[in-house]
Amino acid sequence: MKFLCVSCDEPMKLEKTESPQQGTLSAMFECPECFTQIAMLTNPSETQMVQSLGVKIGPGGADSAAKCPFSGALPQMEGAAPSEEGPRWTREALSRLENIPDFVRPMAKQGIEHYAESQGCPIINEAVLEEARGKFGM
Amino acid sequence: MILERSGSIMKSYFDIEGDGGSDVIAQVEAQQEAVREALSGVRNLVAVGSGKGGVGKSTVTMGLAQALKGRGASVAILDADFNGPCQAHLAGLDAHPWIPSPQGLAVPRRQDGIGVVSMGSLVPASQPVSFSTVSHGDEHVWRSTKEFAVLGQLLSSMAWGSLDFLLFDLPPGAERTVQYADFLPSGVSFVLVTVPSDISRSVVARSVSALAGTSAQMLGYVENMAGYFCRDCGEIKPLFPSSGTKLDLPLLGRVPFDPELASLCDSGWPERRDEAHKAVEAIHVVAENLLQALEAQE
Q1: What is the ipTM metric for this complex?
Q2: Which residues in chain B have Cβ-Cβ distances shorter than 8 Å to A59?
Q3: What torsion, rounded to 10 degrees, do the Cα atoms A71, A72, A78, A82 define?
């Protein structure tokens, strides 16, 4: 979808996006010639359709629209969630989690924490991740 | 109709580069490129579909993987059926953690080395795979789009490495089969699974017609549950009346139903080839014919 300033015949630029309430999205566009501003307001269904493409919405795609789509399943995952005193993650190990798609990251993180707890590891570092990979034949 | 402004023609969609903001099209293209890049080390992409549900696509997929592995090939399975992921259970990888490696998400593996990526490893069998949404009640509108985005992210996030075969276990539905043909990278070959019943063959015939309208290659079909293996008399007896519906595809093999193997599948597909299972033997014939069909394609 593109927006054209009819007066200037110039494509309008996305200035900012906001998610004010209940799944709606407000996207503000501005004409670079006459600075006329308009806002596109989407209803939750329209917002969801675009989010479902797995793309980021915002100037330069900066405002990530991706959220964990499986989060609804999390409370029902087998086993209890790791306790607040559960294993801590090192920065390096956490950065590896970035290799996991957003939508499964919480579940994968929880699985690794369960593994670390079962092994009596208070800290999850890269060595623990490598050990887990070896143990599970990965 | 071309819109005009003050007597001159207004710019139209294709006159404008980008979309002035998020550049959604470019992001989608980048996703597709990331999938191609992640799969660049995979020699053969084979999708096992049907159109019909309950014909044994997952069992045939796992059996094929094992048969190909037994021929020295490196094999992985991606369970593309997000709504009924059963490869994790079949592979004995339920509740198997997904662990990030420096290169991406490490592919969970069975002891025999077959990689299996299935949401069933993360989501308990009794739970539906649910997506969070800002649009409650409209799931029918966006769910399919979301599933393909998830499939793309999964494909591009896994550290597939060098593989001879990546098998896709597709969900049921003739229209879904065609959607996967559109979505998956070019070069993917399809194997369709049916049971001998007229109803099943008719549905698969519909999938064949639909796939014929795409660029997908169809290698052939597998007739699963082609009789059942009676362990008492050692014979294969009919399960379905013979069907008159013709499938315009090469037959890769007939796999009999073996109650004992079915029972073993519930506890995880056996790691080793067992000659006592007629079904396993038959799947090895399918694998051989599949390899020949792929060779002929090259």
Answers
A1: 0.72
A2: 21-22
A3: 50
